[in-house]
Amino acid sequence: MELRGWNYRYVGPAELRALVRPEGEGRRIRSAAEFEDWASGPASVEPSEPVTFVVDGAGVLRLAPRRSEHVVCAGGGTVLSAGEITFGRESGRWVVRAVSNQSTGYCPDTCSWPAVADALDAAGLDVRPDGFTHEVVFRRCPACAQLNIVREEYFVCVFCDGPLPPGWNVDPSAGSGESRAGRFG
Prior knowledge:
This protein is an alpha+beta fold. Helices cover 14% and strands 24% of the residues. The chain is built from 4 helices and 9 strands; from the N terminus they run βαβαββαββαβββ.
């Protein structure tokens, strides 16, 4: 599988990063058989209930129960995307009904969709939307450094009324341009 997309670092609270434990990460799903095993096991939830997902740095889908922290699901590592995903069954097979990039720990940009699509396809979940069904736009305010969720394309900080940049800037140590903690081509 060709890896593509940004490699996002965890930018959330340190106390949530402290929850990461060896062998506590989300279940790796690399095939339809692995997904079926997960979906029929005790860790799965009601099919209509969203679950936490990450696409890890290797491009592999990882799943965990919905209220799991993304950083725990990722084992503390970097991700190509993160959010919530809902599955269902149609004509005897598993399908993806909805998927978002809603993760305030990693704050992935909406352009992380191709990494999600690749990971879903590799896991045999190729009946899926063509993009995020719910896109979350994250920006950090340059004036007060607070994290914002942009709603209705209103790029103004909710904390200090300062302007928010049009491009992703959540990770303050990533700099500008293509240095978002690294880029896979």
